[in-house]
């Protein structure tokens, strides 16, 4: 599937090493426009300032979790269509179902590899 | 307190001979014995040792584990990123080998952090043993209510489904999750 490698991607995680890992994996996949935020509040501020082609977010962050961020994004008229992938260790079925109901486009369980990330991005953003 | 139960020769009738007073005295004796027992059990907790030595040690060791892990991760990632940026020319292999050696060296953190974590685990085991003994000795029951901050934290975790990583790997596999999104 063809991916728009020029689209900006927002990575949201409070663990800087994970941000760095995802950044590097995205770079290997050919994405150069990658921004990051350390929690949902910071992510929302970034989302209001730039149009992103994809949000990749962790779940467990403070003060605003990835789940709350997802609900904010889906409730905002200007942001509601932004593709959103949850990348998280919160892997109970109830979490996955809650995220799906809230409008997440895909869900990756940590730890993951580059192939999984690529497959999910293609599934969500591929045209 | 046993002397209270002895009648005094020639003395007028003492209240201690009154069954009601004897009952009170017996209860006081039991309370005194319980307090003595409780003091022994509290001493066995060695709370001062825990708060003065073991808990600060556990904090310090875990803090060191965190910084050693972060430091090693940083070194490994820097080496990997540097390898990705190596030019495709003569000397490439030597460059890669240099960075790989750096990664090997950084992985030595696991030995040190393993030893630090073992010390913390041993301290926790000691807490557990002493608290269990104390709890049994005083027949402790947990209070029904929890403090408001803890209650708030639990409510937030429940509402936002904050479970954290599961022991022994993910609760739901990636394949099962994919099936939910298919």
UniProtKB/TrEMBL annotation, chain A:
It comes from the Bacteria. Pfam families: Response_reg. Residues 8-125 form the Response regulatory domain. The modification 4-aspartylphosphate is found at residue 58. Keywords: Phosphoprotein. InterPro entries: Bact_response_regulator (IPR050595), CheY-like_superfamily (IPR011006), Sig_transdc_resp-reg_receiver (IPR001789). This is Chemotaxis protein CheY. It comes from Methylobacterium trifolii.
TrEMBL record, chain B:
InterPro entries: Chemotax_Pase_CheZ. It comes from the Bacteria. Pfam families: CheZ (PF04344). This is Chemotaxis protein CheZ. It comes from Methylobacterium trifolii. The lineage of its organism: Bacteria, Pseudomonadati, Pseudomonadota, Alphaproteobacteria, Hyphomicrobiales.
